[in-house]
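Exam revision sheet. Question 4 asks you to relate a sequence to its structure. Input first:
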Amino acid sequence: MQAPPFRLARTPGLGQLNDSAGSYPRHGDACCAPSTRSQTHSPKRRTRLSELDSHLHCSVIGTCLSTHELRKLVPRFKALDRQHATDLEIHHAAVELAIEGGEGGKALHKALDERYATTIRRFDKATDPQAVLALWNEALASGDIPPAYWALITHPQATLDIRQAAFGELHMLSHLVGAANRADIRRLVALEEENAELRSKVERQQSRLHEMSTRHDTQTRELTAQIAQLETQARQPRPADDTAREAEVATLRDALAARDARLALHTSRREAAEQRAADEQERVTVLRATLDETLALLKTVQAEAHAMERTLQASAAEPTDAAASGRPQFTGLEGKRIVYVGGRPGSNAVIRRIVETAGAVLTVHDGGVEDRKGLLAAALPGADHVVFPVDCIDHDSMNMLKRVCERHQVVYFPLRTASVASFVEWLTRTAERDTTGQPPASRFCLRHG
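Answer key, C-alpha coordinates:
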Protein backbone atom coordinates (compact mmCIF):
# COMPACT_ATOMS: atom_id res chain seq x y z
CA MET A 1 0.00 0.00 0.00
CA GLN A 2 1.96 2.96 -1.31
CA ALA A 3 -0.69 5.70 -0.87
CA PRO A 4 -1.78 7.20 2.50
CA PRO A 5 -5.30 6.47 3.84
CA PHE A 6 -6.49 9.84 2.47
CA ARG A 7 -5.57 11.61 -0.77
CA LEU A 8 -3.46 14.67 0.13
CA ALA A 9 -3.85 18.07 -1.54
CA ARG A 10 -1.07 18.90 -4.01
CA THR A 11 1.10 21.72 -2.69
CA PRO A 12 2.48 24.15 -5.34
CA GLY A 13 6.08 25.12 -4.87
CA LEU A 14 7.04 21.88 -3.13
CA GLY A 15 6.92 19.58 -6.17
CA GLN A 16 4.04 17.54 -7.49
CA LEU A 17 3.24 14.33 -5.65
CA ASN A 18 3.83 11.07 -7.50
CA ASP A 19 1.03 8.70 -6.45
CA SER A 20 2.67 5.65 -8.00
CA ALA A 21 6.02 6.27 -6.29
CA GLY A 22 4.52 7.26 -2.92
CA SER A 23 6.37 10.64 -2.61
CA TYR A 24 4.86 12.93 0.04
CA PRO A 25 5.99 15.94 2.09
CA ARG A 26 7.67 14.81 5.28
CA HIS A 27 5.86 16.78 7.98
CA GLY A 28 4.12 15.86 11.21
CA ASP A 29 4.66 13.01 13.63
CA ALA A 30 6.49 9.78 12.88
CA CYS A 31 3.20 7.92 13.19
CA CYS A 32 1.88 9.85 10.19
CA ALA A 33 4.99 9.61 7.99
CA PRO A 34 4.51 7.93 4.57
CA SER A 35 5.65 4.37 4.09
CA THR A 36 8.36 3.34 1.68
CA ARG A 37 7.96 -0.40 2.44
CA SER A 38 6.52 -2.52 -0.35
CA GLN A 39 4.14 -5.34 0.48
CA THR A 40 5.02 -8.66 -1.03
CA HIS A 41 2.91 -10.96 1.13
CA SER A 42 0.85 -13.70 -0.45
CA PRO A 43 -2.80 -12.75 -1.15
CA LYS A 44 -3.82 -16.07 0.42
CA ARG A 45 -2.63 -15.20 3.94
CA ARG A 46 -3.41 -12.36 6.33
CA THR A 47 -1.21 -9.28 6.25
CA ARG A 48 1.26 -8.93 9.13
CA LEU A 49 1.36 -5.76 11.22
CA SER A 50 4.85 -4.85 10.00
CA GLU A 51 3.72 -5.18 6.36
CA LEU A 52 0.99 -2.57 6.71
CA ASP A 53 1.50 0.98 5.51
CA SER A 54 2.91 3.11 8.34
CA HIS A 55 -0.09 5.45 8.06
CA LEU A 56 -2.27 2.66 9.46
CA HIS A 57 -0.09 1.74 12.47
CA CYS A 58 -1.19 4.74 14.55
CA SER A 59 -4.90 3.99 14.05
CA VAL A 60 -4.45 0.24 14.67
CA ILE A 61 -2.46 0.72 17.91
CA GLY A 62 -4.69 3.51 19.22
CA THR A 63 -7.98 1.73 18.39
CA CYS A 64 -7.34 -1.98 18.90
CA LEU A 65 -5.04 -2.02 21.98
CA SER A 66 -5.69 -0.33 25.32
CA THR A 67 -3.07 1.77 27.08
CA HIS A 68 -2.96 -0.78 29.91
CA GLU A 69 -2.01 -3.59 27.51
CA LEU A 70 0.60 -1.42 25.77
CA ARG A 71 2.10 -0.39 29.12
CA LYS A 72 2.76 -4.06 29.91
CA LEU A 73 4.08 -5.03 26.45
CA VAL A 74 6.07 -2.04 25.09
CA PRO A 75 8.68 -1.70 27.92
CA ARG A 76 9.89 -5.22 27.08
CA PHE A 77 11.27 -3.91 23.77
CA LYS A 78 11.79 -0.17 24.47
CA ALA A 79 13.76 1.66 27.17
CA LEU A 80 10.70 3.16 28.86
CA ASP A 81 9.68 3.40 32.50
CA ARG A 82 6.53 1.31 32.83
CA GLN A 83 5.23 3.37 35.76
CA HIS A 84 6.21 6.93 34.84
CA ALA A 85 6.03 7.03 31.02
CA THR A 86 3.09 9.03 29.67
CA ASP A 87 0.35 7.46 27.57
CA LEU A 88 1.61 9.41 24.53
CA GLU A 89 5.15 8.05 24.95
CA ILE A 90 3.82 4.50 25.23
CA HIS A 91 1.69 5.02 22.11
CA HIS A 92 4.57 6.45 20.05
CA ALA A 93 6.87 3.61 21.14
CA ALA A 94 4.26 1.02 20.12
CA VAL A 95 3.87 2.65 16.69
CA GLU A 96 7.67 2.61 16.24
CA LEU A 97 7.73 -1.09 17.12
CA ALA A 98 5.01 -1.78 14.56
CA ILE A 99 6.91 0.16 11.86
CA GLU A 100 10.25 -1.48 12.65
CA GLY A 101 8.85 -5.01 12.78
CA GLY A 102 11.20 -7.37 14.58
CA GLU A 103 10.34 -9.02 17.88
CA GLY A 104 8.34 -6.03 19.13
CA GLY A 105 6.16 -5.95 16.01
CA LYS A 106 5.62 -9.71 16.25
CA ALA A 107 4.56 -9.38 19.90
CA LEU A 108 2.04 -6.67 19.02
CA HIS A 109 0.67 -8.75 16.13
CA LYS A 110 0.35 -11.81 18.38
CA ALA A 111 -1.43 -9.82 21.10
CA LEU A 112 -3.95 -8.47 18.55
CA ASP A 113 -4.56 -11.92 17.05
CA GLU A 114 -5.14 -13.51 20.46
CA ARG A 115 -7.48 -10.77 21.61
CA TYR A 116 -9.64 -10.74 18.47
CA ALA A 117 -9.41 -14.41 17.45
CA THR A 118 -13.21 -14.84 17.29
CA THR A 119 -13.73 -11.88 14.97
CA ILE A 120 -10.78 -12.93 12.78
CA ARG A 121 -12.37 -16.36 12.29
CA ARG A 122 -15.65 -14.72 11.34
CA PHE A 123 -13.92 -12.48 8.78
CA ASP A 124 -11.99 -15.47 7.38
CA LYS A 125 -15.29 -16.70 5.92
CA ALA A 126 -15.30 -13.72 3.53
CA THR A 127 -13.87 -14.76 0.17
CA ASP A 128 -14.04 -11.46 -1.73
CA PRO A 129 -13.63 -7.72 -0.97
CA GLN A 130 -17.39 -7.07 -0.96
CA ALA A 131 -17.97 -9.68 1.71
CA VAL A 132 -15.20 -8.13 3.83
CA LEU A 133 -16.77 -4.68 3.43
CA ALA A 134 -20.21 -6.06 4.36
CA LEU A 135 -18.84 -7.53 7.62
CA TRP A 136 -17.14 -4.20 8.41
CA ASN A 137 -20.41 -2.29 7.87
CA GLU A 138 -22.22 -4.69 10.21
CA ALA A 139 -19.59 -4.14 12.92
CA LEU A 140 -19.74 -0.35 12.37
CA ALA A 141 -23.54 -0.38 12.81
CA SER A 142 -23.31 -2.45 16.02
CA GLY A 143 -20.44 -0.36 17.47
CA ASP A 144 -18.00 -3.29 17.71
CA ILE A 145 -15.22 -1.34 15.97
CA PRO A 146 -11.76 -2.50 17.31
CA PRO A 147 -11.96 -6.25 16.49
CA ALA A 148 -13.56 -5.64 13.10
CA TYR A 149 -10.94 -3.02 12.22
CA TRP A 150 -8.03 -5.38 12.99
CA ALA A 151 -9.69 -8.26 11.11
CA LEU A 152 -10.37 -6.06 8.05
CA ILE A 153 -7.00 -4.30 7.93
CA THR A 154 -5.09 -7.65 7.85
CA HIS A 155 -7.58 -9.62 5.73
CA PRO A 156 -6.05 -11.07 2.52
CA GLN A 157 -9.04 -9.84 0.47
CA ALA A 158 -8.88 -6.26 1.85
CA THR A 159 -8.05 -3.93 -1.06
CA LEU A 160 -6.57 -0.44 -0.90
CA ASP A 161 -10.01 1.18 -1.32
CA ILE A 162 -11.52 -0.89 1.50
CA ARG A 163 -8.68 -0.02 3.90
CA GLN A 164 -8.97 3.65 2.97
CA ALA A 165 -12.75 3.58 3.57
CA ALA A 166 -12.36 1.87 6.97
CA PHE A 167 -9.59 4.29 8.02
CA GLY A 168 -11.69 7.31 7.00
CA GLU A 169 -14.79 6.12 8.88
CA LEU A 170 -12.69 5.39 11.99
CA HIS A 171 -10.97 8.79 11.73
CA MET A 172 -14.26 10.73 11.55
CA LEU A 173 -15.80 8.58 14.30
CA SER A 174 -12.95 9.55 16.66
CA HIS A 175 -13.75 13.25 16.06
CA LEU A 176 -17.45 12.73 16.75
CA VAL A 177 -16.84 10.69 19.90
CA GLY A 178 -14.33 13.20 21.30
CA ALA A 179 -16.63 16.20 20.75
CA ALA A 180 -19.66 14.35 22.16
CA ASN A 181 -17.73 13.20 25.25
CA ARG A 182 -16.53 16.70 26.08
CA ALA A 183 -20.03 18.17 25.71
CA ASP A 184 -21.62 15.31 27.71
CA ILE A 185 -19.12 15.73 30.57
CA ARG A 186 -19.86 19.46 30.85
CA ARG A 187 -23.61 18.86 30.80
CA LEU A 188 -23.33 15.98 33.27
CA VAL A 189 -21.43 18.05 35.85
CA ALA A 190 -23.92 20.93 35.59
CA LEU A 191 -26.91 18.59 35.77
CA GLU A 192 -25.52 16.72 38.78
CA GLU A 193 -25.06 19.96 40.71
CA GLU A 194 -28.51 21.19 39.75
CA ASN A 195 -30.04 17.79 40.54
CA ALA A 196 -28.47 17.69 44.01
CA GLU A 197 -29.70 21.18 44.85
CA LEU A 198 -33.22 20.53 43.57
CA ARG A 199 -33.37 17.15 45.36
CA SER A 200 -32.43 18.80 48.66
CA LYS A 201 -35.03 21.53 48.12
CA VAL A 202 -37.74 19.03 47.19
CA GLU A 203 -36.95 16.89 50.24
CA ARG A 204 -37.30 19.92 52.52
CA GLN A 205 -40.57 20.93 50.87
CA GLN A 206 -41.91 17.39 51.00
CA SER A 207 -41.05 17.20 54.70
CA ARG A 208 -42.93 20.46 55.39
CA LEU A 209 -45.88 19.35 53.28
CA HIS A 210 -45.93 15.99 55.06
CA GLU A 211 -46.05 17.72 58.44
CA MET A 212 -48.78 20.08 57.26
CA SER A 213 -50.73 17.18 55.74
CA THR A 214 -50.40 15.18 58.96
CA ARG A 215 -51.69 18.09 61.04
CA HIS A 216 -54.47 18.69 58.56
CA ASP A 217 -55.52 15.03 58.60
CA THR A 218 -55.50 14.98 62.40
CA GLN A 219 -57.58 18.16 62.58
CA THR A 220 -59.91 16.85 59.87
CA ARG A 221 -60.47 13.60 61.76
CA GLU A 222 -61.14 15.51 64.97
CA LEU A 223 -63.59 17.85 63.26
CA THR A 224 -65.25 14.96 61.44
CA ALA A 225 -65.68 13.16 64.74
CA GLN A 226 -67.17 16.29 66.29
CA ILE A 227 -69.50 16.74 63.33
CA ALA A 228 -70.61 13.11 63.54
CA GLN A 229 -71.20 13.49 67.24
CA LEU A 230 -73.20 16.67 66.71
CA GLU A 231 -75.22 15.09 63.91
CA THR A 232 -76.01 12.16 66.20
CA GLN A 233 -77.06 14.53 68.87
CA ALA A 234 -79.11 16.47 66.33
CA ARG A 235 -81.10 13.35 65.35
CA GLN A 236 -81.93 12.78 68.95
CA PRO A 237 -84.78 14.71 70.54
CA ARG A 238 -83.67 18.29 70.68
CA PRO A 239 -83.08 19.65 74.10
CA ALA A 240 -83.83 23.16 74.97
CA ASP A 241 -80.39 24.41 73.90
CA ASP A 242 -80.48 22.89 70.29
CA THR A 243 -80.10 26.34 68.80
CA ALA A 244 -76.73 26.78 70.51
CA ARG A 245 -75.56 23.38 69.29
CA GLU A 246 -76.49 24.15 65.70
CA ALA A 247 -74.48 27.34 65.98
CA GLU A 248 -71.51 25.36 67.31
CA VAL A 249 -71.74 22.90 64.38
CA ALA A 250 -71.82 25.78 61.91
CA THR A 251 -68.78 27.31 63.62
CA LEU A 252 -66.86 24.05 63.34
CA ARG A 253 -67.73 23.71 59.67
CA ASP A 254 -66.52 27.25 59.02
CA ALA A 255 -63.26 26.46 60.85
CA LEU A 256 -62.75 23.36 58.65
CA ALA A 257 -63.38 25.36 55.47
CA ALA A 258 -60.89 28.01 56.66
CA ARG A 259 -58.23 25.34 57.26
CA ASP A 260 -58.81 23.92 53.75
CA ALA A 261 -58.40 27.40 52.29
CA ARG A 262 -55.12 27.92 54.18
CA LEU A 263 -53.83 24.55 52.93
CA ALA A 264 -54.65 25.51 49.33
CA LEU A 265 -52.88 28.85 49.84
CA HIS A 266 -49.74 27.16 51.17
CA THR A 267 -49.78 24.69 48.26
CA SER A 268 -49.96 27.51 45.70
CA ARG A 269 -47.14 29.37 47.45
CA ARG A 270 -44.99 26.22 47.42
CA GLU A 271 -45.55 25.76 43.67
CA ALA A 272 -44.70 29.42 43.05
CA ALA A 273 -41.52 29.03 45.13
CA GLU A 274 -40.47 26.00 43.09
CA GLN A 275 -40.99 27.93 39.85
CA ARG A 276 -38.94 30.86 41.17
CA ALA A 277 -36.19 28.47 42.24
CA ALA A 278 -36.08 26.95 38.73
CA ASP A 279 -35.89 30.43 37.16
CA GLU A 280 -33.10 31.43 39.54
CA GLN A 281 -31.14 28.27 38.71
CA GLU A 282 -31.39 29.04 35.00
CA ARG A 283 -30.18 32.60 35.61
CA VAL A 284 -27.28 31.28 37.70
CA THR A 285 -26.26 28.99 34.83
CA VAL A 286 -26.27 31.90 32.39
CA LEU A 287 -24.28 34.06 34.81
CA ARG A 288 -21.67 31.31 35.27
CA ALA A 289 -21.19 31.01 31.53
CA THR A 290 -20.85 34.79 31.25
CA LEU A 291 -18.35 34.78 34.13
CA ASP A 292 -16.20 32.11 32.43
CA GLU A 293 -16.12 34.12 29.19
CA THR A 294 -15.28 37.30 31.11
CA LEU A 295 -12.43 35.61 33.00
CA ALA A 296 -10.98 34.25 29.75
CA LEU A 297 -11.16 37.72 28.18
CA LEU A 298 -9.60 39.25 31.30
CA LYS A 299 -6.70 36.79 31.14
CA THR A 300 -6.08 37.69 27.47
CA VAL A 301 -6.25 41.43 28.18
CA GLN A 302 -3.84 41.05 31.12
CA ALA A 303 -1.35 39.24 28.88
CA GLU A 304 -1.66 42.01 26.27
CA ALA A 305 -1.22 44.72 28.92
CA HIS A 306 1.84 42.95 30.37
CA ALA A 307 3.44 42.63 26.93
CA MET A 308 2.66 46.28 26.13
CA GLU A 309 4.12 47.41 29.46
CA ARG A 310 7.38 45.54 28.83
CA THR A 311 7.58 47.04 25.34
CA LEU A 312 7.04 50.57 26.67
CA GLN A 313 9.64 50.03 29.40
CA ALA A 314 12.16 48.82 26.83
CA SER A 315 11.36 51.78 24.56
CA ALA A 316 11.83 54.23 27.45
CA ALA A 317 15.26 52.80 28.40
CA GLU A 318 18.35 55.01 28.16
CA PRO A 319 20.09 55.08 24.76
CA THR A 320 23.30 53.90 26.40
CA ASP A 321 21.54 50.83 27.73
CA ALA A 322 20.17 50.01 24.29
CA ALA A 323 23.62 50.40 22.76
CA ALA A 324 25.14 48.21 25.46
CA SER A 325 22.65 45.43 24.87
CA GLY A 326 23.54 45.29 21.17
CA ARG A 327 20.28 43.55 20.15
CA PRO A 328 16.59 44.42 19.65
CA GLN A 329 13.97 43.72 22.27
CA PHE A 330 12.26 40.87 20.32
CA THR A 331 15.01 38.35 19.61
CA GLY A 332 14.68 35.70 16.94
CA LEU A 333 12.77 37.94 14.46
CA GLU A 334 15.71 39.52 12.69
CA GLY A 335 15.44 39.32 8.92
CA LYS A 336 11.96 37.74 8.93
CA ARG A 337 9.02 39.02 6.88
CA ILE A 338 5.66 39.56 8.57
CA VAL A 339 2.45 40.22 6.59
CA TYR A 340 -0.28 42.14 8.49
CA VAL A 341 -3.73 42.09 6.85
CA GLY A 342 -6.50 44.47 7.94
CA GLY A 343 -6.25 46.73 10.97
CA ARG A 344 -6.47 50.52 11.30
CA PRO A 345 -4.09 53.08 9.78
CA GLY A 346 -3.09 54.62 13.15
CA SER A 347 -2.34 51.28 14.79
CA ASN A 348 -0.61 49.96 11.67
CA ALA A 349 1.92 52.81 11.73
CA VAL A 350 2.90 52.01 15.34
CA ILE A 351 3.06 48.30 14.55
CA ARG A 352 5.39 48.99 11.61
CA ARG A 353 7.82 50.90 13.86
CA ILE A 354 7.81 48.08 16.45
CA VAL A 355 8.51 45.42 13.81
CA GLU A 356 11.28 47.45 12.18
CA THR A 357 12.85 48.01 15.61
CA ALA A 358 12.90 44.22 16.08
CA GLY A 359 14.87 43.88 12.83
CA ALA A 360 12.01 42.34 10.81
CA VAL A 361 10.18 43.52 7.68
CA LEU A 362 6.44 44.32 7.82
CA THR A 363 4.12 44.19 4.79
CA VAL A 364 0.71 45.77 5.45
CA HIS A 365 -2.41 45.11 3.35
CA ASP A 366 -5.68 46.76 4.39
CA GLY A 367 -7.80 43.85 3.09
CA GLY A 368 -9.12 45.64 0.00
CA VAL A 369 -10.16 49.08 1.32
CA GLU A 370 -7.49 50.97 -0.62
CA ASP A 371 -5.11 48.17 -1.64
CA ARG A 372 -6.21 45.83 -4.39
CA LYS A 373 -7.24 42.33 -3.24
CA GLY A 374 -5.06 40.84 -5.97
CA LEU A 375 -1.97 42.14 -4.16
CA LEU A 376 -2.91 40.10 -1.05
CA ALA A 377 -2.48 36.71 -2.74
CA ALA A 378 0.90 37.82 -4.12
CA ALA A 379 2.15 39.10 -0.74
CA LEU A 380 1.46 35.95 1.28
CA PRO A 381 3.79 33.31 -0.32
CA GLY A 382 7.24 33.33 1.23
CA ALA A 383 6.16 35.16 4.39
CA ASP A 384 7.44 33.89 7.74
CA HIS A 385 4.30 34.96 9.63
CA VAL A 386 0.84 36.16 8.54
CA VAL A 387 -1.21 38.07 11.13
CA PHE A 388 -4.74 39.52 10.94
CA PRO A 389 -7.12 41.05 13.56
CA VAL A 390 -10.48 39.27 13.59
CA ASP A 391 -12.39 42.48 14.44
CA CYS A 392 -11.03 44.59 11.57
CA ILE A 393 -10.96 42.42 8.42
CA ASP A 394 -13.68 41.46 5.95
CA HIS A 395 -14.72 37.83 5.53
CA ASP A 396 -13.65 37.64 1.88
CA SER A 397 -10.07 38.71 2.66
CA MET A 398 -9.87 36.36 5.66
CA ASN A 399 -11.05 33.36 3.60
CA MET A 400 -8.59 34.19 0.80
CA LEU A 401 -5.78 34.54 3.37
CA LYS A 402 -6.47 31.11 4.88
CA ARG A 403 -6.66 29.37 1.49
CA VAL A 404 -3.41 30.90 0.22
CA CYS A 405 -1.56 30.22 3.50
CA GLU A 406 -2.66 26.57 3.57
CA ARG A 407 -1.69 26.16 -0.09
CA HIS A 408 1.82 27.52 0.54
CA GLN A 409 2.16 26.13 4.09
CA VAL A 410 2.51 29.57 5.65
CA VAL A 411 1.55 29.83 9.33
CA TYR A 412 -1.13 32.46 10.05
CA PHE A 413 -2.20 33.88 13.42
CA PRO A 414 -5.55 35.60 14.22
CA LEU A 415 -5.39 38.47 16.74
CA ARG A 416 -8.17 39.33 19.17
CA THR A 417 -8.33 43.01 18.12
CA ALA A 418 -6.59 45.46 15.83
CA SER A 419 -4.95 47.17 18.81
CA VAL A 420 -1.21 47.57 19.24
CA ALA A 421 -1.40 45.62 22.53
CA SER A 422 -2.76 42.49 20.82
CA PHE A 423 0.02 42.62 18.22
CA VAL A 424 2.74 43.18 20.84
CA GLU A 425 1.45 40.24 22.92
CA TRP A 426 1.56 37.97 19.84
CA LEU A 427 5.02 39.32 18.91
CA THR A 428 6.28 38.49 22.42
CA ARG A 429 4.96 34.92 22.22
CA THR A 430 6.42 34.45 18.74
CA ALA A 431 9.83 35.75 19.79
CA GLU A 432 9.91 33.44 22.83
CA ARG A 433 8.88 30.44 20.71
CA ASP A 434 11.48 31.19 18.00
CA THR A 435 14.15 31.52 20.68
CA THR A 436 13.47 27.95 21.87
CA GLY A 437 14.08 26.68 18.33
CA GLN A 438 10.88 24.58 18.17
CA PRO A 439 9.10 24.97 14.81
CA PRO A 440 5.27 25.01 14.71
CA ALA A 441 3.55 21.68 14.16
CA SER A 442 2.48 20.71 10.65
CA ARG A 443 -1.07 21.71 9.70
CA PHE A 444 -1.53 18.65 7.49
CA CYS A 445 -1.18 15.65 9.86
CA LEU A 446 -3.52 12.86 8.74
CA ARG A 447 -4.12 11.67 12.29
CA HIS A 448 -4.33 14.91 14.28
CA GLY A 449 -5.76 17.39 11.73
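Marking note for examiners. DSSP finds 14 helices and four strands in the chain.
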